[in-house]
Amino acid sequence: MKKIEAIIRKSKFSLVKEALHDVGVNFFSYWDVTGLGNEKEGHVYRGISYSTSDIQRRYLSIVVNDDFAEAAIGAIIKSASTGEVGDGKIFVSDIGEAFRIRTGSKGGDTLN
């Protein structure tokens, strides 16, 4: 199993959610977050300067079986990309074990 953590633009969340559903990822958790990035330059919009590092983000936490990982990552990249600085990051890590609290089952079957 893999844990995919993605930090994306909040404005792209609906597209990412739909793309994940399209590849069979129907359960994940998410939070609204704010963070700091590497960009030092601000952008000007309607005469107001703002920093892309302060833009609201959404943090997604997704656990999938190994065979779904590449499809999920691809769906996130394709649907979250604008080609601009600040599109976000994806982190992937291995999950040693998972348990379903209600039934006590464990392993990859807990994700179904």
Characterise the protein shown here.
- The chain is α+β, with helices and mostly antiparallel strands and 112 residues long.
- The protein is built from 2 helices and 6 strands; from the N terminus they run βαββββαβ.
- The model has no long low-confidence stretch (mean pLDDT 89).
Keywords:
about 110 residues; about 30% strand; alpha+beta; two-stranded antiparallel sheet; four-stranded antiparallel sheet
Write a concise synopsis of the structure shown.
With 112 residues, the chain is an alpha+beta fold.
Query: What is the straight-line distance between the termini?
Result: 12 Å
Helix fraction, binned, reads 10-25%
Major sheet: arrangement of strands: 2-5-1-6
General shape: elongated
Largest sheet: 4 strands, antiparallel
| Poorly predicted sequence stretches spanning 5 or more consecutive residues | none
Strand element count: 6
Rounded mean pLDDT score: 89
N-to-C SSE series?
EHEEEEHE
Class per helix and strand makeup: alpha+beta
Radius of gyration: 16 Å
Strand content is: 25-35%
Number of helices: 2
List strands and helices in order, with pairings:
Layout: E1 2-9, H1 13-22, E2 29-33, E3 42-45, E4 48-51, E5 57-64, H2 66-80, E6 88-94
Antiparallel strand pairs: 1-5, 1-6, 2-5, 3-4
Helix pairs in contact: 1-2
